[in-house]
Amino acid sequence: MATPDHLFSLRNNFYLGAYQAAINNSDVPNLSQEDSIERDSLVYRSYIALGSYQLVISEIDSSAPTPLQAVKLLAAYLSGPDQKESTISSLKEWLGDSAIGNNPVLRLIAGIIFMHEQDYNEALKHTNTGGTMELHALNVQIFLKMYRSDFAEKQLKIMQQIDEDHTLTQLANAWLNLAVGGSKIQEAYLIFQDFCEKYPMTGLILNGKAVCCMQMGHFDEAESLLLEALNKDAKDAETLANLIVCSLHLGKQSSRYLSQLKLSHPDHMLVKRTAADEESFDRALQTVA
């Protein structure tokens, strides 16, 4: 008889972006030591997702297990640009340590950090062997960022063989469908719609459904979903970025959303692209002035 999965709800909340719910409902009784460490890792990663980097850094001390130390590294990396170099240096040192280098959470955090650095080959060195559903899902994300949907599809098939109904398998399937486009967009939409019916609405679910709507040309519906997501988190980077794109297609002003994105997430790809386009435009003006 299979043992009950005490952390199922906590994991599911985290995967679907219900970070505060994950934190609020993390007091699970009768956990083994291994499950307690996983529970703490998910709770601290939820705090990181909410931007509470210093809380994580201050609460995880040097005696904590390797998975929590890895999560602390992620918090340090994301806490500010001045921390990135030293964090990556520590990360590489730990990955080279034969005693802890193969820890799945450490490899996952390495993949996340190197993906942020857009060093996808380095990320795959640590994630490509898989071992957990999260590592397989991260591989799907990395391959899609490399525009290798063929490799992403292979990873998805592995996930489907392990557990076709797993939340991460469904999410990875939706991501791949969005990347492939065409008739697959409708399939992605149905996955997010299914999440809407099964679980409380989160920014992640609403953004996923909105992106499907935009790709199908349903910008009014997309805007409605994104405004609902904005009500849940007024500083969420993907919501703001998607609202900028959606507003432009609807012929509406997007400058306020862009200003919010610049203030909250100055390193976001859309902010950088906009700044580069503005510089190019200014240079072109100077040549004809």
Automatic annotation (TrEMBL):
Transmembrane segments: none annotated. It is a peripheral membrane protein. It is found in: Cytoplasmic vesicle, COPI-coated vesicle membrane; Golgi apparatus membrane. One of its GO terms (molecular function) is structural molecule activity. GO terms for cellular component: COPI vesicle coat; Golgi membrane. One of its GO terms (biological process) is intra-Golgi vesicle-mediated transport. Its main location: membrane. InterPro entries: Coatomer_esu, TPR-like_helical_dom_sf. The keyword Cytoplasm applies. Keywords: Cytoplasm, Cytoplasmic vesicle, ER-Golgi transport, Golgi apparatus, Membrane, Protein transport, Transport. The coatomer is a cytosolic protein complex that binds to dilysine motifs and reversibly associates with Golgi non-clathrin-coated vesicles, which further mediate biosynthetic protein transport from the ER, via the Golgi up to the trans Golgi network. The coatomer complex is required for budding from Golgi membranes, and is essential for the retrograde Golgi-to-ER transport of dilysine-tagged proteins. Oligomeric complex that consists of at least the alpha, beta, beta', gamma, delta, epsilon and zeta subunits. Belongs to the COPE family. This is Coatomer subunit epsilon.
